[in-house]
peptidylprolyl isomerase
Amino acid sequence: MINLANLLYPLFVVVSSRSVCQRAEMAISMLSLPKPTILSPLRNPQRTPIFLPKCTSSPSTSLPEQTQHDHSPCISHSRRRLLEVAMGLLAFPLFSVSEANATRIEYYATVGEKLCDMNFAKSGLGFCDVLVGTGTQPPRGELINIHYTARFANGIVFDSSYKRGRPLTMRIGVGKVLPGLDQGIMGGGGVPPMLAGGKRKLMIPPLLAYGPEPAGCFSGDCNIPANATLLYDILYLGLYK
């Protein structure tokens, strides 16, 4: 005799399993946040911004595909897009100002002062004032600040305080710098002293520069060749404070 309960039991198990799955899906849908529609999603959702955590999820085989993609514990695509736009707006003016400053520094480092007629002292130093300052002259042995651009005789720049973005602090008149700079800034031997705020061009012969030996050498390469005549554009800022 066929037992009716034995025949209906598998059907009851299947129906019960589907009911449990449906209830689970409904519970997850009720607990999950709805997908925002304020902004459009990213064009390439798989590409994650470097400043945001990558969304990872553990898909469940019992849930539909749409539920797996729409309900994620990570930041939504729209919010991520909004953060990308905000970061771009914040970074744009910073990069623009930085590039503008760099361009301006490079300009001052490579463009010389206007030409002037050189006068020559007995030492062979050439000098001329582009702008006579109105401040005090540099005292011997004191620390002073200058801006300068240094060139070879062919006009190629080999050093500049403008390029570094800060003035040079040096002790004047006691042999701490090139003899041509000591004489050209502090004066003496037929050269008038510079005044604070003044601009002067100097043509320094080899004997008042680095002489017969090359300078600025590293691993056999030298920045300044032997017997080089050097041209300096000097802006005397004043005493170091």
Observations:
- Confidence is low (pLDDT under 50) at residues 10-17, 27-73, 91-96.
- The first helix runs from residue 4 to 31.
- The first strand starts at residue 119 and ends at 120.
